[in-house]
Structure formats: C-alpha cells, structure tokens
Amino acid sequence: MVVDSVEVVRLSVVIPVYRSAGILPKLVVQLRDAIAIEGLSNGFELLLINDASPDDSWRVIEELSREFPFVRGFNLRKNAGQHNAIMAGLNNVQGNVIVIMDDDLQHPPGSIGDLVRGILAGHDVCYTRYRNRQHAMWKQWGSQFNDYVATLLLDKPKGLYLSSYKALRREVVDEVIKYDGPYAYVDGLILNVTQSITAIDIEHQARDEGESNYNLRRLISLWLKMATSFSILPLRLATYLGFALSALSLVMLAFVVVAKFLHPEYPPGWTSLITVILFIGGIQTLCIGMVGEYLGRTYLKLNCKQQFIIGGRTGGGEL
C-alpha cells in the first residue's frame, strides 16, 4: 500500500551498524525497493552509523554511498553502543519522519510504510510488535524483564513493547537530541517527551547471518541506564530498605533482651549474629553501589564525556 497523505513525507532511516559488512548490501537494496513501492524515493535518506565495527563495515558503507545517492555514512571513532550510535544518527537527520531499525534484516523493510502511516495518522511515535519473535529464549525473557522495569521506572504504557524498530515525528526527535548525557537510552527519552504512541504488528524475520551482538552484559548495562538515567526509584528503594532494616533490628533487639531474661542459660548466638552481620553488610554494599552508580554517571557528565565522536562521513545531499 502506497503512503497517501497531503503531508509531504521526507523520510530518514537511521541504522546503527556493527559487524554487518556482509548484510549491508542486501539491506540497502531491500530498503530501496520497499521505499520505491511506498512512493517515497524522492524524499528519502538512509543514515548508516558505523559504531567502530571491527570488520569491513565502514568500507562497505563508503562503497554503498557511492552506488546509492540516498546513503549517508557516519564512522564513529570509538564504539559508543547502540543507543549512542542512534543518537549520532538522530543528530544528523533531515527528514520529518524518522525510522530507526536494526542492521540484521530481522526488521522487515516492507513494514516502513505502515510505520509512516502510523505517524501520518497523528501519532508522535509508532512502535512495532513482533508476531513471531526469532530471538533466543534467554533474550525474550530479558525483554520481558526489561518491559516490566520500563513500566515501573519510566511510566511506560502497559502492553507497549519497546521495540528497536520504530518511527518518530521530527518534533519528537528535536526534543530527544537535547539530551547530551553520555548514557543515552532512546526509549526512555521518547517516553519523557510524548504519550502520543501507537504500535503496529510485524513479522519478525530470522537473522540473515551471524549472531546478535547483544549479550547478557549489554542487557544489564541497558537496565542500569534505564534505572539510573530516568528514575530515582532505586535510591528510594534503598531508603525504604534502610527503614525496614532499622525496624527489624529494633524488633530483634527486643526479642533478644526478652529471651535473655526468660532463659539466662541460652548460649550466645554466634551463628545468628554472623548471619545478621553478613545480611546487613550485603544490603549496605548494594545501596552504596547504587549511590556510586548515580554519582559516577553524574561525574562523567560533568566532565563532558561525549555520547559519540564522528570520525568520518560519506555521501550526503539535501532531501
């Protein structure tokens, strides 16, 4: 179905690239064909953000920019992470509708028209829902946990899946890129900007080649970004936990005193004492670590740690 609207659509597609040299040519061709079917070829740009990929991704991007005039490439000097690489793209888009997608062809290019129509219907953001997810089971469990945490910390609407395949109105992008901290979480920034959000269903395709670059460590890092960049709930929980432990210690004190008076022959409780000390010590260490996480991120921002550093560009032109 061709996009039909009185509003002139200038489309920008932002794709962070990492270890995808073999996939990029096929991805660009499929995108070109999908955009042509939607009748958007005259106002279309594709921004490929090479996140310091160790393979030949940047060389391939340079070749593609020479072959396809709509391809613009940006080469980051050091690996910044998926969300910071996306921010690099958002800071350089020219379109009034911006689509963000992955580089592994699991996001079908043919769904871009439906995403654009979601924006043209009056929404600020259009997410995607996967009908048949091709991710490993552990990653699906991680996504479910991520969904729960986002609902708790970011006031995310229930039932909304924060997919990495989405479309944004330009006005939303202009607000999102005002964030200049070193630990960007794009979905958190979006939820801070607008509540006008819709979603469409798509088929999740199998990865064309290779393996996902996301692992457990990166997922945990993502959760920490979400928790410490957009909410003080962890600190508040630490406060509540401190009050709870204080109340528990008073109860235990009363219990020990009463037990000593009623049963003077009881031996000293070495085991229970050590258990309590280790428990309280562990909670204190956890809380101190949480405070340190906040302070560390504040310190890095005050020292102007950059989200990304662009080392090279290729292609380009006005939409």
- Tell me the name of the CATH class of the largest domain: Alpha Beta
Radius of gyration: 25 Å
What do we call the CATH homologous superfamily of the largest domain? Spore Coat Polysaccharide Biosynthesis Protein SpsA, Chain A
CATH-assigned fold name of the largest domain: Spore Coat Polysaccharide Biosynthesis Protein SpsA, Chain A
Number of domains: 2
Largest sheet: 8 strands, mixed
Strand line-up of the largest beta sheet: 7-5-6-4-1-2-3-8
Structural class, from secondary structure content? alpha/beta
Secondary-structure blueprint:
Elements: E1 11-17, H1 24-37, E2 44-50, H2 57-67, E3 71-76, H3 82-90, E4 97-100, H4 112-120, E5 125-130, H5 137-154, E6 166-169, H6 170-176, H7 186-193, E7 197-202, H8 216-230, H9 233-262, H10 270-302, E8 310-315
Parallel strand pairs: 1-2, 1-4, 2-3, 5-7
Antiparallel strand pairs: 3-8, 4-6, 5-6
Written account of the structure:
This protein folds into 2 domains: 11-213 and 305-315, Spore Coat Polysaccharide Biosynthesis Protein SpsA, Chain A; 233-302. The protein has 319 residues and is α/β, with parallel strands linked by helices. An 8-stranded mixed beta sheet has the order 7-5-6-4-1-2-3-8, sandwiched between helices. The longest helix has 33 residues, at 270-302. 48% of the residues lie in helices and 14% in strands. Helix 5 (137-154) runs parallel beside helix 8 (216-230) and helix 9 packs antiparallel against helix 10. The two termini are 23 Å apart. Helix 1 (24-37) links the parallel strand 1 (11-17) and strand 2.
